[in-house]
Amino acid sequence: MKFATKAIHAGQHPDPTTGAVMTPIYQTSTYWQQSPGEHKGYEYSRGTNPTRKALEECIAALENAKYGLAFSSGMAATDTVLRLLKPGDEVITGNDLYGGSYRIFTKVFEKFGIKFHFVDFTRPETIRSYLNDRTKLIWIETPTNPTMQIVDIEAVGLIAKEAGVLYVVDNTFASPYLQNPIDLGADIVMHSVTKYIAGHSDVVMGALVTNNEELYKQLFFYYNACGGTPGPQDSFLALRGIKTLHLRMKAHCENGRQIAQFLRNHPRIEKVYWPGFEDHPNHEVAKKQMRDFGGMISIALKDASLQDTFKVASSFKVFSLAESLGGVESLINHPATMTHGSIPKEIREKVGVVDNLIRISVGVEDIEDLLKDLEQALKL
Ligand SMILES: *Cc1c(COP(=O)(O)O)cnc(C)c1O
Protein backbone atom coordinates (compact mmCIF):
# COMPACT_ATOMS: atom_id res chain seq x y z
CA MET A 1 0.00 0.00 0.00
CA LYS A 2 1.07 3.56 -0.70
CA PHE A 3 1.49 6.26 1.93
CA ALA A 4 -1.95 7.94 1.72
CA THR A 5 -3.76 4.61 1.85
CA LYS A 6 -1.72 3.49 4.86
CA ALA A 7 -2.33 6.81 6.64
CA ILE A 8 -6.08 6.20 6.38
CA HIS A 9 -6.32 2.43 6.79
CA ALA A 10 -3.24 0.80 8.36
CA GLY A 11 -3.94 -0.92 11.67
CA GLN A 12 -7.66 -0.16 11.39
CA HIS A 13 -10.47 -2.60 10.76
CA PRO A 14 -14.25 -2.26 11.17
CA ASP A 15 -15.06 -2.95 14.82
CA PRO A 16 -15.88 -6.67 15.16
CA THR A 17 -18.86 -6.15 17.50
CA THR A 18 -20.68 -3.26 15.77
CA GLY A 19 -19.05 -2.73 12.40
CA ALA A 20 -18.05 0.84 13.40
CA VAL A 21 -15.75 2.07 10.66
CA MET A 22 -13.77 4.34 12.97
CA THR A 23 -11.73 2.60 15.66
CA PRO A 24 -13.71 3.05 18.90
CA ILE A 25 -12.21 4.68 22.00
CA TYR A 26 -11.82 1.60 24.18
CA GLN A 27 -12.08 3.46 27.47
CA THR A 28 -11.28 0.47 29.66
CA SER A 29 -8.42 -0.36 31.98
CA THR A 30 -9.06 -4.09 32.08
CA TYR A 31 -10.51 -6.97 30.05
CA TRP A 32 -12.69 -9.94 30.86
CA GLN A 33 -11.02 -13.35 30.92
CA GLN A 34 -12.98 -16.52 30.30
CA SER A 35 -10.75 -18.44 32.68
CA PRO A 36 -7.43 -17.28 34.14
CA GLY A 37 -5.08 -16.47 31.28
CA GLU A 38 -7.71 -17.19 28.63
CA HIS A 39 -8.55 -13.86 26.95
CA LYS A 40 -8.78 -12.08 23.61
CA GLY A 41 -5.22 -10.74 23.69
CA TYR A 42 -5.89 -7.88 26.11
CA GLU A 43 -5.33 -8.06 29.86
CA TYR A 44 -4.63 -4.58 31.20
CA SER A 45 -4.44 -1.26 29.34
CA ARG A 46 -0.97 -0.23 30.54
CA GLY A 47 0.30 -3.06 28.35
CA THR A 48 -2.23 -3.14 25.50
CA ASN A 49 -5.36 -1.30 24.45
CA PRO A 50 -7.14 -1.76 21.10
CA THR A 51 -7.36 1.98 20.26
CA ARG A 52 -3.68 2.44 21.00
CA LYS A 53 -2.80 -0.71 19.07
CA ALA A 54 -4.49 0.63 15.93
CA LEU A 55 -2.40 3.81 16.22
CA GLU A 56 0.80 1.85 16.81
CA GLU A 57 0.23 -0.29 13.74
CA CYS A 58 -0.59 2.77 11.63
CA ILE A 59 2.58 4.65 12.64
CA ALA A 60 4.70 1.53 12.11
CA ALA A 61 3.22 1.09 8.62
CA LEU A 62 3.97 4.72 7.70
CA GLU A 63 7.60 4.21 8.73
CA ASN A 64 7.85 0.91 6.81
CA ALA A 65 8.45 -0.88 10.11
CA LYS A 66 6.93 -4.04 11.58
CA TYR A 67 6.48 -2.92 15.19
CA GLY A 68 5.19 0.26 16.79
CA LEU A 69 4.74 1.46 20.37
CA ALA A 70 2.88 4.62 21.41
CA PHE A 71 3.80 6.66 24.49
CA SER A 72 2.24 9.37 26.60
CA SER A 73 4.80 11.85 25.18
CA GLY A 74 7.82 11.98 22.93
CA MET A 75 9.96 12.22 26.05
CA ALA A 76 8.41 9.00 27.46
CA ALA A 77 9.42 7.30 24.20
CA THR A 78 12.98 8.66 24.51
CA ASP A 79 13.11 7.61 28.16
CA THR A 80 12.17 4.06 27.16
CA VAL A 81 15.00 3.84 24.62
CA LEU A 82 17.52 5.10 27.18
CA ARG A 83 16.42 2.39 29.61
CA LEU A 84 18.07 -0.14 27.29
CA LEU A 85 21.42 1.26 28.54
CA LYS A 86 23.34 0.57 31.72
CA PRO A 87 25.94 2.47 33.78
CA GLY A 88 29.22 2.88 31.89
CA ASP A 89 27.59 2.92 28.46
CA GLU A 90 28.25 5.81 26.10
CA VAL A 91 26.00 7.60 23.65
CA ILE A 92 27.00 9.73 20.66
CA THR A 93 24.41 12.35 19.81
CA GLY A 94 24.03 15.65 17.97
CA ASN A 95 25.15 19.04 19.21
CA ASP A 96 22.00 20.71 17.84
CA LEU A 97 19.28 18.79 19.58
CA TYR A 98 15.72 19.22 20.81
CA GLY A 99 16.07 20.94 24.23
CA GLY A 100 14.12 18.24 26.07
CA SER A 101 16.36 15.51 24.65
CA TYR A 102 19.43 17.42 25.82
CA ARG A 103 17.79 17.78 29.24
CA ILE A 104 16.89 14.10 29.70
CA PHE A 105 20.37 13.05 28.54
CA THR A 106 22.31 15.41 30.82
CA LYS A 107 20.01 15.88 33.82
CA VAL A 108 18.42 12.44 34.11
CA PHE A 109 20.61 9.75 32.55
CA GLU A 110 24.09 11.15 33.17
CA LYS A 111 23.46 10.68 36.86
CA PHE A 112 22.99 6.96 36.27
CA GLY A 113 26.51 6.79 34.85
CA ILE A 114 25.76 7.08 31.14
CA LYS A 115 28.08 9.31 29.15
CA PHE A 116 26.85 11.49 26.28
CA HIS A 117 29.02 12.98 23.54
CA PHE A 118 27.45 15.93 21.69
CA VAL A 119 28.99 16.12 18.25
CA ASP A 120 28.52 17.65 14.81
CA PHE A 121 26.88 14.97 12.67
CA THR A 122 26.89 16.92 9.43
CA ARG A 123 30.23 15.28 8.61
CA PRO A 124 29.46 11.67 9.63
CA GLU A 125 33.12 10.54 9.53
CA THR A 126 33.93 12.79 12.50
CA ILE A 127 31.88 10.55 14.80
CA ARG A 128 34.38 7.70 14.39
CA SER A 129 36.74 9.35 16.87
CA TYR A 130 34.07 9.09 19.59
CA LEU A 131 33.43 5.38 19.08
CA ASN A 132 34.88 2.94 21.59
CA ASP A 133 33.84 -0.37 23.10
CA ARG A 134 31.53 1.38 25.58
CA THR A 135 29.55 3.10 22.79
CA LYS A 136 26.08 1.57 22.78
CA LEU A 137 23.86 4.13 21.07
CA ILE A 138 23.92 6.75 18.34
CA TRP A 139 21.01 9.19 18.52
CA ILE A 140 20.38 11.73 15.77
CA GLU A 141 17.79 14.25 14.72
CA THR A 142 17.43 15.54 11.16
CA PRO A 143 16.59 18.24 10.21
CA THR A 144 18.10 19.52 13.43
CA ASN A 145 16.25 21.84 15.73
CA PRO A 146 16.31 24.82 15.31
CA THR A 147 19.12 25.36 12.77
CA MET A 148 17.83 22.93 10.13
CA GLN A 149 21.08 21.09 9.49
CA ILE A 150 20.72 17.82 7.66
CA VAL A 151 22.41 14.63 8.82
CA ASP A 152 23.04 11.89 6.26
CA ILE A 153 20.93 9.14 7.82
CA GLU A 154 22.34 6.37 5.64
CA ALA A 155 26.00 7.38 6.12
CA VAL A 156 25.64 7.43 9.92
CA GLY A 157 23.77 4.11 9.71
CA LEU A 158 26.71 2.46 7.97
CA ILE A 159 29.09 3.61 10.71
CA ALA A 160 26.66 2.45 13.43
CA LYS A 161 26.28 -0.93 11.79
CA GLU A 162 30.01 -1.41 11.34
CA ALA A 163 30.53 -0.55 15.02
CA GLY A 164 27.59 -2.72 16.16
CA VAL A 165 25.92 0.23 17.87
CA LEU A 166 22.18 0.78 18.24
CA TYR A 167 21.06 3.59 15.91
CA VAL A 168 18.06 5.80 16.71
CA VAL A 169 16.65 8.60 14.57
CA ASP A 170 14.27 11.20 16.01
CA ASN A 171 12.11 11.75 12.92
CA THR A 172 9.76 14.32 14.46
CA PHE A 173 10.77 17.28 12.29
CA ALA A 174 10.46 15.47 8.98
CA SER A 175 7.51 13.15 9.76
CA PRO A 176 7.22 9.79 8.01
CA TYR A 177 5.83 11.61 4.98
CA LEU A 178 9.18 13.25 4.24
CA GLN A 179 11.66 10.54 5.18
CA ASN A 180 11.78 6.95 6.48
CA PRO A 181 14.95 6.30 8.51
CA ILE A 182 14.28 2.55 8.91
CA ASP A 183 14.80 2.22 5.14
CA LEU A 184 18.13 4.04 5.55
CA GLY A 185 19.54 1.84 8.32
CA ALA A 186 18.00 3.09 11.58
CA ASP A 187 17.23 0.45 14.21
CA ILE A 188 14.60 2.58 15.95
CA VAL A 189 12.67 5.65 14.83
CA MET A 190 11.38 7.94 17.55
CA HIS A 191 8.55 10.45 17.10
CA SER A 192 6.99 13.17 19.09
CA VAL A 193 3.49 12.34 17.80
CA THR A 194 2.46 15.68 19.34
CA LYS A 195 3.84 17.42 16.26
CA TYR A 196 3.15 16.54 12.59
CA ILE A 197 1.73 13.05 13.11
CA ALA A 198 -1.20 14.12 15.28
CA GLY A 199 -0.99 17.53 13.65
CA HIS A 200 -3.68 19.53 15.45
CA SER A 201 -1.91 20.70 18.62
CA ASP A 202 -4.42 18.88 20.80
CA VAL A 203 -2.47 15.88 22.17
CA VAL A 204 0.95 15.15 23.64
CA MET A 205 2.14 11.71 22.54
CA GLY A 206 5.21 9.82 21.37
CA ALA A 207 6.08 6.70 19.41
CA LEU A 208 8.87 4.24 18.67
CA VAL A 209 9.02 1.92 15.69
CA THR A 210 11.44 -0.84 14.78
CA ASN A 211 11.80 -3.77 12.42
CA ASN A 212 13.79 -5.82 14.90
CA GLU A 213 11.65 -8.27 16.87
CA GLU A 214 14.15 -8.71 19.70
CA LEU A 215 14.49 -4.95 20.11
CA TYR A 216 10.71 -4.57 20.03
CA LYS A 217 10.40 -7.11 22.85
CA GLN A 218 12.93 -5.23 24.97
CA LEU A 219 11.24 -1.89 24.34
CA PHE A 220 7.83 -3.40 25.06
CA PHE A 221 9.16 -4.68 28.37
CA TYR A 222 10.11 -1.14 29.54
CA TYR A 223 6.95 0.35 28.03
CA ASN A 224 4.82 -1.96 30.15
CA ALA A 225 7.13 -2.11 33.17
CA CYS A 226 7.55 1.69 33.46
CA GLY A 227 4.12 2.61 32.15
CA GLY A 228 4.60 5.72 30.00
CA THR A 229 1.70 4.63 27.81
CA PRO A 230 -1.09 6.89 26.53
CA GLY A 231 -4.82 6.59 27.10
CA PRO A 232 -7.34 5.60 24.44
CA GLN A 233 -8.80 9.10 24.01
CA ASP A 234 -5.45 10.58 22.99
CA SER A 235 -4.72 7.55 20.82
CA PHE A 236 -8.01 8.14 19.02
CA LEU A 237 -7.20 11.82 18.42
CA ALA A 238 -3.77 10.95 17.02
CA LEU A 239 -5.33 8.27 14.81
CA ARG A 240 -7.83 10.82 13.54
CA GLY A 241 -5.09 13.35 12.85
CA ILE A 242 -2.88 10.88 11.04
CA LYS A 243 -5.48 10.30 8.34
CA THR A 244 -4.66 13.67 6.77
CA LEU A 245 -0.88 13.57 7.36
CA HIS A 246 -0.09 13.41 3.63
CA LEU A 247 -2.49 16.27 2.79
CA ARG A 248 -1.19 18.46 5.58
CA MET A 249 2.46 17.78 4.80
CA LYS A 250 1.99 18.77 1.16
CA ALA A 251 0.48 22.07 2.28
CA HIS A 252 3.18 22.62 4.97
CA CYS A 253 5.90 22.09 2.35
CA GLU A 254 4.28 24.37 -0.23
CA ASN A 255 3.69 27.21 2.25
CA GLY A 256 7.17 26.62 3.70
CA ARG A 257 8.77 27.01 0.29
CA GLN A 258 7.04 30.35 -0.36
CA ILE A 259 7.79 31.71 3.10
CA ALA A 260 11.46 30.68 2.92
CA GLN A 261 11.82 32.55 -0.42
CA PHE A 262 10.03 35.60 0.93
CA LEU A 263 12.20 35.76 4.05
CA ARG A 264 15.40 35.27 2.14
CA ASN A 265 14.78 38.48 0.22
CA HIS A 266 13.71 40.48 3.24
CA PRO A 267 16.04 43.32 4.36
CA ARG A 268 15.53 42.68 8.09
CA ILE A 269 16.73 39.08 7.86
CA GLU A 270 20.36 38.16 8.24
CA LYS A 271 19.95 34.46 7.56
CA VAL A 272 17.24 31.94 6.72
CA TYR A 273 17.72 28.32 7.75
CA TRP A 274 15.80 26.01 5.41
CA PRO A 275 17.20 22.87 3.73
CA GLY A 276 15.44 23.57 0.44
CA PHE A 277 17.88 26.31 -0.59
CA GLU A 278 20.43 25.10 -3.11
CA ASP A 279 23.20 26.80 -1.15
CA HIS A 280 22.18 25.17 2.16
CA PRO A 281 25.35 23.29 3.22
CA ASN A 282 23.55 19.92 3.31
CA HIS A 283 21.07 20.52 0.48
CA GLU A 284 22.27 17.52 -1.54
CA VAL A 285 21.81 15.18 1.41
CA ALA A 286 18.36 16.64 2.03
CA LYS A 287 17.42 16.05 -1.60
CA LYS A 288 18.68 12.48 -1.42
CA GLN A 289 16.84 11.40 1.74
CA MET A 290 13.77 13.67 1.95
CA ARG A 291 10.77 13.83 -0.39
CA ASP A 292 10.40 17.59 0.19
CA PHE A 293 11.81 20.16 2.60
CA GLY A 294 9.08 20.61 5.20
CA GLY A 295 7.54 23.56 6.92
CA MET A 296 10.16 24.33 9.56
CA ILE A 297 12.19 27.48 9.00
CA SER A 298 14.45 29.50 11.31
CA ILE A 299 15.51 33.08 10.78
CA ALA A 300 18.19 35.26 12.32
CA LEU A 301 17.11 38.91 12.47
CA LYS A 302 19.66 41.44 11.27
CA ASP A 303 21.24 43.65 13.97
CA ALA A 304 18.52 42.73 16.44
CA SER A 305 18.90 42.76 20.22
CA LEU A 306 16.97 40.38 22.44
CA GLN A 307 14.39 43.13 22.92
CA ASP A 308 14.04 43.78 19.17
CA THR A 309 13.60 40.05 18.64
CA PHE A 310 10.95 39.84 21.38
CA LYS A 311 9.14 42.75 19.75
CA VAL A 312 8.99 41.00 16.38
CA ALA A 313 8.05 37.66 17.97
CA SER A 314 5.17 39.30 19.85
CA SER A 315 3.67 41.26 16.95
CA PHE A 316 2.15 38.51 14.83
CA LYS A 317 -1.59 38.28 14.28
CA VAL A 318 -2.05 35.02 12.38
CA PHE A 319 1.05 33.19 13.67
CA SER A 320 0.83 32.37 17.40
CA LEU A 321 3.81 32.79 19.68
CA ALA A 322 3.96 29.32 21.25
CA GLU A 323 6.21 26.32 21.78
CA SER A 324 5.72 23.19 19.70
CA LEU A 325 5.38 22.72 15.93
CA GLY A 326 3.76 20.63 13.26
CA GLY A 327 0.14 21.66 13.82
CA VAL A 328 -2.18 23.06 11.16
CA GLU A 329 -1.73 26.55 12.62
CA SER A 330 1.42 28.59 12.11
CA LEU A 331 3.58 29.12 15.19
CA ILE A 332 6.46 31.41 16.08
CA ASN A 333 8.99 30.34 18.69
CA HIS A 334 11.98 32.02 20.30
CA PRO A 335 14.28 28.99 20.84
CA ALA A 336 16.77 30.70 23.18
CA THR A 337 14.11 31.40 25.82
CA MET A 338 11.40 28.88 24.93
CA THR A 339 12.13 25.41 23.47
CA HIS A 340 15.90 25.56 24.08
CA GLY A 341 15.80 27.48 27.37
CA SER A 342 17.05 24.37 29.21
CA ILE A 343 20.37 24.44 27.29
CA PRO A 344 23.11 26.65 28.81
CA LYS A 345 23.68 29.89 26.85
CA GLU A 346 27.31 29.23 25.90
CA ILE A 347 26.43 25.77 24.59
CA ARG A 348 23.38 26.82 22.58
CA GLU A 349 25.12 29.87 21.08
CA LYS A 350 27.89 27.66 19.72
CA VAL A 351 25.38 25.94 17.44
CA GLY A 352 23.57 29.10 16.41
CA VAL A 353 20.74 29.26 18.96
CA VAL A 354 21.39 32.96 19.46
CA ASP A 355 19.13 35.62 20.96
CA ASN A 356 18.06 36.98 17.54
CA LEU A 357 16.93 33.59 16.22
CA ILE A 358 13.25 32.90 15.59
CA ARG A 359 11.84 29.53 14.59
CA ILE A 360 8.74 29.28 12.44
CA SER A 361 6.45 26.29 12.14
CA VAL A 362 4.60 27.06 8.94
CA GLY A 363 0.98 25.97 9.12
CA VAL A 364 -1.52 25.27 6.37
CA GLU A 365 -3.42 28.58 6.38
CA ASP A 366 -3.78 30.65 3.21
CA ILE A 367 -0.30 31.68 2.10
CA GLU A 368 -1.35 35.28 1.39
CA ASP A 369 -2.42 35.80 4.99
CA LEU A 370 0.81 34.28 6.28
CA LEU A 371 2.99 36.45 4.06
CA LYS A 372 1.03 39.59 5.01
CA ASP A 373 1.45 38.76 8.69
CA LEU A 374 5.20 38.26 8.30
CA GLU A 375 5.47 41.50 6.41
CA GLN A 376 3.72 43.55 9.09
CA ALA A 377 5.63 41.87 11.95
CA LEU A 378 8.99 42.52 10.28
CA LYS A 379 8.27 46.22 9.63
CA LEU A 380 10.95 48.33 11.26
C1 LIG B 1 8.70 17.92 20.80
C2 LIG B 1 9.88 17.10 20.47
C3 LIG B 1 10.27 16.04 21.29
C4 LIG B 1 9.58 15.72 22.60
O1 LIG B 1 8.28 15.29 22.41
P1 LIG B 1 7.06 15.57 23.43
O2 LIG B 1 5.90 14.97 22.74
O3 LIG B 1 6.97 17.06 23.59
O4 LIG B 1 7.42 14.90 24.71
C5 LIG B 1 11.38 15.30 20.90
N1 LIG B 1 12.06 15.59 19.77
C6 LIG B 1 11.70 16.61 18.96
C7 LIG B 1 12.49 16.87 17.72
C8 LIG B 1 10.61 17.40 19.28
O5 LIG B 1 10.27 18.41 18.48
Topology:
Blueprint: H1 3-9, H2 50-62, E1 67-71, H3 74-82, E2 90-94, H4 99-109, E3 115-119, E4 135-141, H5 153-163, E5 166-170, H6 175-178, E6 188-192, E7 206-210, H7 213-226, H8 232-242, H9 245-264, E8 269-273, H10 283-289, E9 296-301, H11 306-313, E10 320-321, E11 331-333, H12 345-350, E12 357-361, H13 367-377
Parallel strand pairs: 2-3, 2-4, 4-5, 5-6, 10-11
Antiparallel strand pairs: 1-7, 6-7, 8-9, 9-12, 11-12
Helix pairs in contact: 1-2, 2-8, 3-4
**Computed structural class:** alpha/beta
Percent of residues in beta strands: 15-25%
Report low-confidence residues grouped into runs of 5 or more. Answer: none
Distinct small-molecule ligands in the complex: pyridoxal-5'-phosphate
* CATH topology-level name of the largest domain: Aspartate Aminotransferase, domain 2
Q: What assembly state would you assign to the polypeptide chains in this entry?
A: single chain
**What is the CATH level 1 assignment of the largest domain?**
Alpha Beta
Could you spell the SSE succession in H and E letters? HHEHEHEEHEHEEHHHEHEHEEHEH
For the record, the CATH architecture of the largest domain stands as 3-Layer(aba) Sandwich
Number of domains: 2
Give the spatial strand order of the biggest sheet: 1-7-6-5-4-2-3
Helix count equals 13
Helix fraction, binned, reads 25-40%
Q: Describe the largest sheet.
A: 7 strands, mixed
Approximate shape: globular
Tell me about this structure:
The protein is an alpha/beta fold. It has two domains: 3-242, Type I PLP-dependent aspartate aminotransferase-like (Major domain) (Aspartate Aminotransferase, domain 2); 245-378, Aspartate Aminotransferase, domain 1, CATH 3.90.1150.10. Helices cover 35% and strands 15% of the residues. It contains 13 helices and twelve strands. The protein has helices at residues 3-9, 50-62, 74-82, 99-109, 153-163, 175-178, 213-226, 232-242, 245-264, 283-289, 306-313, 345-350, 367-377, and strands at residues 67-71, 90-94, 115-119, 135-141, 166-170, 188-192, 206-210, 269-273, 296-301, 320-321, 331-333, 357-361. β4 (135-141), α5 (153-163) and β5 (166-170) form a beta-alpha-beta unit. Bound molecules: pyridoxal-5'-phosphate. The site of pyridoxal-5'-phosphate has 16 residues, from α3 and α4. Pyridoxal-5'-phosphate (PLP) binds next to α3 and α4.
